[in-house]
UniProtKB/TrEMBL annotation:
Domain FAD/NAD(P)-binding: 5-325
SUPFAM superfamilies referenced in this protein's UniProt entry, alphabetically: FAD/NAD(P)-binding domain (SSF51905), FAD/NAD-linked reductases, dimerisation (C-terminal) domain (SSF55424)
Binding site for NAD(+): G182, S183, G184, Y185, I186, G187, V188, E189, G269
GO cellular component: cytosol
Classification via Gene3D superfamilies: 3.30.390.30, FAD/NAD(P)-binding domain
Name of protein: Glutathione reductase
Coiled coil regions in record: none
GO biological process: cell redox homeostasis; cellular response to oxidative stress; glutathione metabolic process
Cofactor note: Binds 1 FAD per subunit.
Entry GO MF terms: flavin adenine dinucleotide binding; glutathione-disulfide reductase (NADPH) activity
Keyword tRNA-binding: no
Amino acid sequence: MSHEFDLLVIGAGSGGVRCARIAASHGAKVAIVESRHWGGTCVNLGCVPKKLMVQASEYGDLVDDSHAFGWSSTRGTHDWATLIAAKDKEITRLNGIYVSMLEKAGIALFTGHTRFEDAHTVVVEPSPLAPDEAPRTVTAKRIVIATGSTPLKLDIPGADYAITSDEAFHLTERPQRVVIVGSGYIGVEFAGIFAGLGSTVDMVQRHDLPLRGFDEDLRKELKDAIAVRGITLHCNASPTRIEKTGSAYTVSLNNGQTLDADCVFFAVGRRPKIDSLGLEKAGVSTAKGGRIAVNDRQETSQPNIYAIGDVTDRLNLTPVAIAEGHNLADSLFGKEPPRTWSLDTTPKAVFFSPPLASVGLTEEEAAKNGVLDIYLTRFTPMRHTLSGRKDRKTMMKLVVDQASQKVVGAHVLGDDAAEMMQGVAIAVTAGLRKVDFDRTVGIHPTSAEELVTLRTRTRETPKAS
């Protein structure tokens, strides 16, 4: 049976776009369909606008800090509408770049919601991106599902009063009092954004420490940094009800506390966006949590259908989706074997103020493999010896396997942590040993040089039983 396309990609986020472009570069006839935003979550409702808003939230402190350096600057008031308009302008520019890249690659673009009819056939129907588009049927030899994920809400009375990150990017004004529920990436970052722009922020988390899954020393340091930022952290607590009174809200917690807010923000996780795809008609199986189950070749239970990115709910980071999309296109249409990606050493960052970043194993994970040497330092960065922010600390930690002396994990909280970590990730991916760090000459004066001057072991961690 002949098909219109060699490859149809459902979802024009970072992973889907990369997959489509690489496949087209190999000579495949490719189509891509998007229902909501060209560029997907990262460009429109995630990484890019969030980082811009984090940067916006830091300028007030920079103005205050400048006084110690001789500047007579004065902190003004922040105009939320100006920020949102500037952010929207940049996102529109990026949307255009994504469309242009796809068109230049010779890829057919469809706008609308996709619904499977069978394993090779989809119907593209009207969607928010193209509400007046007439439905059409598209067939392809191979299909890639790259529809990403969507925010979750807690199942409690009054949950409809809460917003998620999707709505936060389009608030018409900044709320003065914000209750953020959840302390993962999104919760921590938006807490910092709102606090930096002048809001009173309460963060509610189920655990004692934020950022579950990160290294424990890093989590402890972040807990202190959250307090320094002026955010009130409510640990080991969960909301039980949200009530509206006039234009404000009251959040009841399971510990008996109540919190008043102008905005309640749920940052309690995301789930794969697959509900209306009609996967059952295509013979595609789902696994725990509603994710699409795939093997190490990104294949679903239907041999000609693949899934990449957040929809598989494995490692939900934009660069991982891009790597998966690139690899898949190479393996399906390339003449050379696909490149190898070290997903086990994928670096990650959380853009709080100060930011934090990690690569490799946490101390707790690494201890399962053997005895560890831990190197840890905590200091005041040079800028803040003058600014007077003596409580704005930097922490750096190296996790070293004692037997091999390989650096198997690195964790940093402090100014420019993410920028530092990209280079350190190369070293950890390459399997470099502590002696390789030790014999590397540092750049002085920088915070980063501390990573190569950690000479004295802080402690030895025994192998976990």
